[in-house]
Amino acid sequence: MNKSEMVPIGEVTGIDDLVALLSCHVGSLPLLYLGMPLGASYKALGIWNPIIEKVERRLAGWQKLYLSKGGCLTLLKSTLSSLPTYFMSLFPIPVSVANRIECLQQNFLWGGLGDVHWFHLVGCSPIWCGGLGVRHLIPFNRALLEKWFWRFRMKESHLWRRVLVAKYGVVRGGWITNKPRGSHGCSIWKHVMMGWEVFASHFSHDVGMGDRVLFWHNRWCSNRPLKETFPVLFGCSLNQDDFVASVLVSRSPGSSSDKLRWRLNGNGTFDSRSFYHALLAPVAMAFPWKMIWGVKSPRRIAFFMWIVAWDRILSCDNLRKKGFVLAGWCCMCKADDESVDHLFIHCGAARLLWSLVFRSFGVVWVLPNRVLDLLFGWQNWFGKRSSGVWNLIPSCLMWTIWRERNNRSFENKEIALDKLLETFCGVLFDWSRVWGLLLLHL
Ligand SMILES: [Zn+2]
Predict the structure, then answer these.
(1) Domain named Reverse transcriptase zinc-binding: which ranges (predicted)?
(2) Ligand 1 centre and the CA of 188: distance in Å?
(3) Smallest Cα–Cα separation from 168: which of 153, 181, 156?
(4) CA dist list (Å): 283 to 52, 99, 128, 329, 355
(5) Looking at the chain, which terminus has fewer C-beta neighbours within 10 angstroms, N or C?
(6) Structural domain boundaries of the chain?
(7) How far is the CA of 400 from the centre of ligand 1 (A)?
(8) What is the pTM of this model?
(9) Three-state helix/strand/coil letters over 389-437
């Protein structure tokens, strides 16, 4: 047992003899147990150092320069943001640590781009609200921590639950402990309990026997507790704290026990994801996210289209808005000012490509003024029928134009418009073939 440690808690007499007997070492708190700090204050910033170091190490290991933005985003969402998850399901993350990790993530994704603050604001929204779906750590941490409320109800025989019940007692019905009072002991549970009100507003009770659901205070027969729906009656009631079973005639003796029902998803069982989104409370906004993330284009192109939809690509007019002084002419038609809507819709080169598409598919459609409106209207044959190839067209066309525009601006290389048409058809064909989509019309 020479790899083991014996950790005395409080005054232990004869520890040296015990250690000699078992041939192990004497350890002291705090220590690391199963990767988690044991005996350290949960507020200590030091316990997060290994996590921050790990995030930093991962970032240094990935050769960011060789990854596209789409690749960076995939890595960020799949690996990086899940690194602290284990810790965050047990410890409240200090704001400074959350900021530090989010800062590392932002730098990884955006590098030195000037709009980092904006990107961060938008990036943390869910994708259907126009964001990138990168996790915001503070609400995510709360969603993970408050899962303990759900477990408290579901795991009645577990030791940790029995300890909490013995220490604080339970409120009527046994769904949760009494509020921890005083300044001493079990501060993590005290911290978790601070979120109880918000958590409780998202579940209701399925009444079985009715002996654990409070008639007036719990949500069981409508979306609100009866005391809120009928405040006058509640005021008159002599039995304000009664259970449903003692107010109503109970059902058949074989009724099941009372259950909790999570209201933020369809199956009634708690999941951190739905709670996280409720905590994040994203501002609902119309955004053509299906035409960006839901089409079969490569990830980096989807990312490019996301930037286009937000009108944040580095076109001449956007650069001028950032304070750069430059001539704003469009290098595709060499006539008009370059803006996102001009480049991808109104420019002569873009019109040529769009008219080729319409001719090939036998469609008559008036192009809208703005790229955003085009993306809204385009999906699935203007909402008529599903088509993978059709949905790829805006991404493919705008990407082809953007590449040619960059070649002309930075490489001084220019291809003729008929060659551009060929390139567009070739790229569309390649993307469709990769995904096994049939290319019927081009
Ligand atoms: Zn132009």
Answers:
(1) 270-354
(2) 60
(3) 181
(4) 30, 22, 10, 36, 37
(5) N
(6) 65-192+265-287, 203-262, 289-435
(7) 14
(8) 0.77
(9) HHHHHHHHHHHHHHHHHHHHHHHCCCCCHHHHHHHHHHHHHHHHHHCCC
